[in-house]
Amino acid sequence: MLIVIALLTGLLFGFGLLLSGMVNPAKVQGFLDIAGQWDPSLAFVMGGAIGVGLVFFTLAKKRDTTLATHEPMRLPGNNSLDRRLILGSVAFGAGWGIAGICPGPALVALGAGSLQVIAFVIAMLAGMALFSLLQRKH
Amino acid sequence: MQIDLINFTPWSALAGGALIGLAGGLLALLSGRIAGISGIVGGLFDGRPAADRNWRIAFVAGLLAAPLLWQLVAPLPAIQQVAGIPAMMIAGLLVGLGTRYANGCTSGHGVCGLSRLSLRSLVAVLSFMGAGFVTVFIIRHVLA
C-alpha cells in the first residue's frame, strides 16, 4: 500500500513541478533575480502548494493514525532553530541560485536528459552520501 | 524592481503548485511520510531497513516517470539551463550537503513544513531564499 501511495504521489508531485515551471532553471533564476526583470511566478507556486497543503496537513495533524497505512501519525516534531539548519539552508540556497534547480526538479529534469542536470544530480548525490558518511563517523 | 510580464505565468504556477501541495498533502495524510525530496533521497544513504527504503525508491520512481508520461500527452515545457557543467557540480554538492544538514529543501521545508506551520521550516525557507537572492544578485549584477 505504502509503495503504491509513494509511487502515485511522486508522479503527481513530478507533474506539478513540470506544470509549475520549477523544472526550468531560467525561470527559477528569474524569480531569484529581484534586482533585474523579476518573474514572480514561483511565489504563486508556493502559494498554490501551501494553500492546498494546509488543508491536508491540518487534517493529518488531527489524526492519531495515518489514513491508508494505519500507522501511528508521526509528523516531524523537531523545533530547534540551530546553526545546522541555517548554515545548511544558506549553502542550499547558494547552490539553488547557481544552478536554478533544487532536488525535486533536478530528478524530474533527468528525464529530459541534459548533461548539466546529470552533473548536478551526481554531485548532489555525492554531497548527500558525504553527509551520511560524516554523520556515521560522529 | 521591474516585473517581467513576458515570462510571468501565474496560472500554470498556481495550478502546478496546487498539484505539488496535493501530492505532499496526500502522502502525509495517507501514510504520515513527508514529501521532502532531499530527505527521501538522502535517507537512501543512511543504511535504513528495506521497509523504510522501498517507499523512497517508489516516490523517486514516480518523479522520474513524470516527464516520460507527460510526453505521451504533451511536449515537455521549456527547460533552459543557466550554468555550465563545472558550476552545476559545485551547485549540486552545495545542495546535497546543505539540504541534509538543514534537514530539508524547497519541498520538505518549503511546501510541507510551511503547510504544517512549522517555525523551523519558516527559518529554513527564509535562509535559503535569502541565500538564493544574494547568489543570483552576485552572478547577474556583480560578476556579469
TrEMBL record, chain A:
Membrane-spanning residues: 41-60, 81-101, 107-134
Keywords of the record: Membrane, Transmembrane, Transmembrane helix
Pfam annotation, one family: DUF6691
Domain of life: Bacteria
InterPro entries for the chain: DUF6691
Full protein name: YeeE/YedE family protein
Species of provenance: Chitinilyticum piscinae
Lineage, top ranks: Bacteria, Pseudomonadati, Pseudomonadota, Betaproteobacteria, Neisseriales
TrEMBL record, chain B:
GO cellular component, one term: plasma membrane
Keywords: Cell inner membrane, Cell membrane, Membrane, Transmembrane, Transmembrane helix, Transport
Top-level lineage group: Bacteria
Pfam annotation, one family: Sulf_transp
TM regions (residue ranges): 20-45, 57-76, 82-102, 122-143
Subcellular localization(s) per the UniProt record: Cell inner membrane
Membrane-topology descriptor: Multi-pass membrane protein
Glycosyltransferase among keywords: no
UniProt-listed InterPro entries: Sulf_transp_TsuA/YedE
UniProt KW Transport keyword: yes
Family: Belongs to the TsuA/YedE (TC 9.B.102) family.
Name under which the protein is recorded: YeeE/YedE family protein
Protein source organism: Chitinilyticum piscinae
Lineage: Bacteria, Pseudomonadati, Pseudomonadota, Betaproteobacteria, Neisseriales
